[in-house]
Design a protein that fits this description.
The chain is mostly beta strands. Helix content is 0%, strand content 29%.
């Protein structure tokens, strides 16, 4: 489950991670894909692999043309489809299927 930064001033405040308010995401048309451009948290890590947890900041969510072939939705990092999460340090990481 994705987490979003629900702080009042996301560019200034420390992220307040919580459930996403999907009404704050852009509405993409039929020839576009949504790209969340998830950011790595500095304070939250996965217990199983100690990788950074990623979160969504509403002002970084955009619609891109489907002709681009999608996006990894992790900036920086790479999306591991098989684990349904972003991996910051991807080199040598045993992901079964990368986006």
């Amino acid at each position: 489950t994705d987490l979003c930064d629900n702080s009042a001033n996301p560019l200034e405040d420390r992220p307040e991670l919580g459930p996403c308010d999907t009404s704050r995401f852009p509405r993409c048309n039929g020839d576009q894909d949504i790209c969340y451009n998830r950011k790595p948290s500095r304070d939250h890590f996965h217990r199983d692999n100690h990788q950074h947890k990623f979160y969504i900041q509403y002002d970084r969510v955009f619609c891109y043309p489907k002709s681009w072939g999608g996006c990894s939705s992790c900036s920086p990092g790479r999306y591991c489809k098989s684990e349904k999460r972003c991996i910051l340090e991807e080199e040598g990481y045993p992901c079964a299927e990368w986006f």
